Amino acid sequence: MTQGGAAADNLNLKKYFLPKNLKKDFPASIVVFLVALPLCLGIALASGAPLFSGVLTGIIGGIVVGCLSGSQLSVAGPAAGLTVIVLNGITSLGAFETFLLALVIAGVFQIILGFVKAGTIANYFPSAVIEGMLAAIGIILIMKQFPHAVGYDADFEGDEGFKQIDADNTFSGIFRAVSKINFGAVIIAGVSLALMIYWPKFKKLAVVPAPLMVVLAGVGLSLLFANSGLALRDKQFVHIPVVGSMGEFFGLLKSPNFAEIGNKQVWITAFTIAVVASLETLLSLEAVDKIDPIKRISPTNRELLAQGAANIISGLLGGLPMTAVIVRSSANVNAGARTKMSAIIHGVFLLMALVLIPSLINYIPLSCLAAILLTTGFKLAKPALFKHMWHQGLNQFIPFAVTILAVVLTDLLIGVGIGMLIGIFYILRTNLRNPYFYHIVKNGDKKVIRIQLAEEVSFLNKAAIQVTLTSLPKETEVIIDGSNSRYIDPDVLEIIRNYKHNAYTKGIIVTLNEVKEKYDVPKLKELKLQSN
Q: Where are the transmembrane segments (predicted)?
């Protein structure tokens, strides 16, 4: 490595320890820790795996993926979308140790996918579908956390599917919860919601994160209610495994059964985990980049490598499959995180909670944690988003709305798949001609790159334009000319705006020439005339 390269690496590392970043990352890590803890436990329970495995996966996801990933804001951990696969895998393979072998192989598959650059498929997810997925997750959080907020905890924490393991579905679960309200839980949830909304408005008090105040208030109220008619039941609290010492912690670790390496079912399970986990990771990564206030672009292939390495470690130690998880990641963004240190510190907090203070953690009521997730859900599905998508036109709003309905009524991957089909239908209604050409001219000693956009620039041109922009040399002047363009797809417009927003970090000056804020979709008659 050259001296210049070493200096650049050191400078890159220093940004994670800058006070201006740490003062945002540290409070955000507390929020993510509080959100992740019950989700790790709930997903492990639903997967038929030891509760310890769920927390261990969260620890590995936070620390290992956090260190290896190129994403600054995504958070990895056990995913609800994999619970059925894990449960069926453990059952069909006959032993958890055999399943761990499948997980190790799945991690190897993901590393291979990273090396062959399979992550580039994320460039082909339409923005309307990703926006719909985010809104759907917000709606699911609100509906799924309502029962926990009122003290009905039949469904596991972190469930995102319409059909629940308690034989209810999302809607019937809400109605059943209303009939089984625990007023102690309702009071705790109500106070917690008030703290989440109003605590940040007091600037002098807001140095203490609102979610931490929520937990303290929840514990205090649950102790106050302990000997009254408002007392919470045992299942209405967090239940983290109690580990008495580091020796006991290491004793809970499990190893894969490598003797089953020739078992065909192991390889089928491994391939299934690798494909589903990779797709969910790429979807989550694209969604997190969309809500990143700094508009950074995460390297998708590097993410697959990081996830693969972490899944290998998880399988070797007795954990569960992991992905980048949108619920934890969106909570991280909403809490104001700036760098990956938030995800790493949250992993450290999970480790400390498991080893040092498990008994104290078990005093936390689920209803106060539900309040944190309810506010996260509202921020993801806020009415302004629906209004914004409506103003983008029906070609954007319909795929957005269909994705929301499909995700809410099925699950994440099936719902996004349905949304993609609708999105592709609308894409094919627009002209799919060549997107652009560019040429380089000299302005003194400085290069000026002029990119002339075509008359019709569709979503299918998104990947090519993004690759071109990200590969432009540093310290140049770039002119993006839309003077000939009758239509530029909203996804491409977003890429151009994000590029302009972030280009200064590479010393690139970007000028937009006649690139409008919004383009109306050409009418079918106009497209036919143009094709003739």
A: 26-45, 51-68, 99-116, 123-143, 181-199, 206-225, 237-254, 266-285, 305-327, 348-378, 398-428
Q: What is the DSSP letter of 64?
A: I
**Which string of b and e fits 75-86 if b means at least 16 CB within 10 Å?**
bbbbbbbbbebb
Buried b vs exposed e over 331-352: b needs ≥16 C-beta within 10 Å? bbbbbbbbbbbbbbbbbebbbe
What predicted TM-score, i.e. pTM, was given to this entire model? 0.80
- Separation CA 286–CA 123 (nearest Å): 8
List residues bridging with 443 in a β-sheet. 446
Q: What tens-digit pLDDT sequence spans the chain (532 residues)?
A: 444 444 444 446 777 778 888 989 999 999 999 999 999 999 998 888 999 999 999 999 999 999 999 999 999 999 888 888 999 999 999 999 999 999 999 999 999 999 999 988 887 788 889 999 999 999 999 999 999 999 998 888 878 788 888 788 889 999 999 988 999 999 999 999 999 999 988 877 777 888 999 999 999 999 999 988 899 998 899 988 888 777 888 888 999 999 999 999 999 999 999 999 999 999 999 999 999 998 898 999 999 999 999 999 999 999 999 999 999 999 999 999 999 999 999 999 999 999 888 889 999 999 999 999 999 999 999 999 999 999 888 888 999 999 999 999 988 889 999 999 998 887 766 544 456 666 777 666 677 888 888 877 877 778 778 888 888 888 888 999 988 888 888 888 999 999 998 888 888 889 998 888 888 876 544 444 444 3
> Cα separation of 241 and 355, whole Å?
9
Kind and range of the H or E run holding 80: none
Tokens 């509760």 — which residue? Answer: 51
Contacts (Cβ under 8 Å, ≥6 apart) of 46: 80, 83, 87, 156, 158, 159, 165
What does the alpha-carbon distance between residue 449 and residue 504 come to, in Å, rounded to a whole number? 15
- Closest CA relative to residue 155, chosen from 76, 324, 36, 38: 38
**Contact 260/253 with Cβ under 8 angstroms?**
no
